[in-house]
Amino acid sequence: MDFSGPLILSGALVGLAVGLTGMGGGALMTPIMVMVFGVNPTAAIGSDLAASVFMKPFGAVVHQRAGTVRWDLVRWLLPTAVPAAFGGVFLLRALGEGEALQRHVKYVIGGALLLAVLGMLVRMALDRRRGAAPDESGDVPVRPLATLGIGLLGGTVVGMTSVGSGSLIIVMLMLAHPRLRANHLVGTDLVQAIPVVAAAALGHLVRGDADLGLAATLLVGAIPGVLLGARLSTRVTGPALRWALVVLLTGSGLSMLSVPGAVLLAVCVPLAGAGAGLTLRERRRAAASSAAPPPGPAGNGDGDGDRDRVGPEGVRLPT
Questions:
Q1: Parts of the chain with a pLDDT under 50
Q2: What are the CA-CA distances from residue 140 to residues 24, 68, 76, 171, 294 (Å)?
Q3: In 94-181, which ranges are continuous DSSP H helix?
Q4: In angstroms, rounded to a whole number, what is the distance separating the alpha carbons of residues 195 and 24?
Q5: pTM for the whole structure
Q6: Which residue, 22, 104, 152, 309, shows the most beta carbons closer than 10 Å to its own?
Q7: Is residue 181, in this structure, part of any structural domain at all?
Q8: Domain count, the chain
Q9: How far is the C-alpha of 222 from the C-alpha of 31, rounded, in Å?
């Protein structure tokens, strides 16, 4: 059966999600290939990474032009992240061979997806806190040891599962540099992900796991999806999309771990309800804030001419 059409559509939907939220590439595409199209897990990981090598630069170029890439952070991430991503491929092979390997890989992907969900929830919570306080300037100092550790852990997870270059590493960067501007976080993460994903993809090519034909088919839909998502990102509410990703990735992760359907529903339905409730509350709060009247002049219009006649520098104006 020819899966080209459905694969292109899946690539477009995943690309759209990445363009809108900056997250969800490997975390969505790999489980879709495994659970919907029956691709074996190692081939799904390798093919997704090969596709991501060509998809990531589109967002990175936009951020580089906008000046939102912290190259000092990138320089501290890559020395550990790139070799860890390449080595993660061979660490994955240490889990076994044949059917045993594919079964173990499904469990590893499931665990990585749930870890990505946790990271997304942490990121949303941090974003809400950051909304109440002004960001620091772009010259927040780098924490070298923490950043090297982030590269080591994040790169290993990416090499083993293709998950994490957007959903895990960016959260760890937020935790290590909590006052770094949000747009600098996203731009830095997109740029560092290019060599990290390329190293992981190379490892899977060496091992013979990546299907380049499958990756090319995905890219036919993914590239226009990313571009469209980036254009729509200023018009569509991010919280609703992120909660949809949280529910979807939770269900995918639990399915990869062979959790019974009843348990899956018992987890995902309340999670979806909580996400809908929080999103509605955020919208109402934003609507109330935009509907509030702007601060009036110093006077209150009650006939107190002296108070009503105060200039912009607090100088009393002549009556």
A1: 1, 134-136, 299, 301, 303-317, 319
A2: 27, 13, 14, 16, 33
A3: 98-131, 144-161, 169-176
A4: 18
A5: 0.73
A6: 22
A7: yes
A8: 1
A9: 16
